[in-house]
Design goal:
Blueprint lengths: L1 H26 L17 H13 L22 H8 L3 E5 L5 E5 L13 H6 L12 H4 L3 H9 L16 E2 L7 E2 L20 H16 L3 H34 L2
Antiparallel strand pairs: 1-2, 3-4
Helix pairs in contact: 2-7, 6-7
The protein binds heme C.
The site of heme C has 21 residues, from helix 6.
Organism: Zavarzinia compransoris
GO molecular function: electron transfer activity; heme binding; metal ion binding
Pfam family, one: Cytochrom_C1
Length: 254
């Protein structure tokens, strides 16, 4: 046993350890501070609105969001008129009175507009890779919003000795470190209406918050219900204990 340990240590020292180090680096996703963390967590509405802006102006040219309707945006704090105006920016296929194909403006009840007609078209525009639908992505990836943040801020210079395949980009957070998506965010890519500085880190934080909301819009209700249940159980525990004391007193005949 001891000899084996020494042998293993020697092998590591000989440089076989570098592979192990690279592999553990691949899975390390740093945890971020999120307003929605913890039992009392809520979504930061300003961050959600900024995140929607990043999705709309940057990610929506490649990624669909097909489980979301414009009217869902009311949850982000947009007024009815604003939701209507946002929907009306897109064109949807329709039929005119004589049954001819035409287009109409989007309505609040419409699903988000998809950038490509179908999967083949999406792949053809992205060098064969498919940009996944982002509606549920925060729940579909280990690490959730922490992973999304790490991915969006993980575009670094390709390390020496790393072979990148044609058309791929180095990313520290993506499994295997090669991703077909080119770095989507650069400083000042969007101009935030509330004056927040649009650094890559800020945009990554905001769009990850937005993607957490799209994946779990009822998170706040769930947490509030959880807190209520815990409160109820705490009160129940106190009353059960008081009852126990009374019963014990009676039994002991005092
Ligand atoms: C020019 C097109 C393009 C843009 C713009 C773009 N993406 Fe992507 N994205 C892709 C492609 C292609 C893939 C698939 C990559 C692969 O499988 O290698 C992808 C994959 C992803 C993934 C999945 C990674 C995984 O773990 O599988 C996420 C999350 C993502 N993109 C988020 C975003 C966000 C957020 C934005 C906006 C800030 C964005 N993308 C902008 C093309 C794009």
């Amino acid at each position: 046993m001891r000899a084996m340990k020494i042998g293993a240590a020697a092998l590591l020292a000989l440089g076989l350890g570098t592979g192990v180090a690279a592999a553990s680096e691949a899975v390390h996703i740093e945890k971020q501070e999120w307003s929605f963390n913890g039992a009392f967590g809520t979504f930061d509405r300003a961050s959600l609105q900024r995140g929607y802006q990043v999705y709309k102006e940057v990610c929506a040219s490649c990624h669909s969001m097909k489980y979301l309707s414009f009217r869902n945006l009311a949850d982000l704090g947009f007024s009815e008129a604003e939701v209507k105006a946002l929907a009306a920016q897109y064109e949807y296929p329709a039929l005119d009175e004589s049954g001819e194909a035409t287009t109409r403006k989007g309505l609040p009840a419409d699903r988000f507009h998809s950038p490509f007609a179908n999967e083949l078209a999406a792949r053809a525009s992205n060098g064969g890779a498919l940009p996944p639908d982002l509606s549920l992505i925060a729940k579909a990836r280990v690490g959730g919003p922490d992973y999304l943040y790490a991915l969006l801020t993980g575009y670094h210079e390709t390390p020496a000795g790393f072979t990148l395949n044609a058309g791929m980009n180095y990313n520290a957070a993506f499994p295997g470190h090669q991703i077909a998506m080119a770095k989507p965010l650069n400083d000042d890519q969007v101009t935030y209406a509330d004056g927040t500085k649009a650094t890559v880190a800020q945009m990554a934080h905001d769009v990850s918050t937005f993607l957490m909301w799209t994946a779990e819009p009822k998170l706040e209700e769930r947490k509030r219900a959880g807190v209520k249940v815990m409160g109820f159980l705490a009160i129940l525990t106190v009353f059960s204990f008081l009852t126990y004391l009374r019963v014990r007193k009676k039994v002991q005949g005092h």
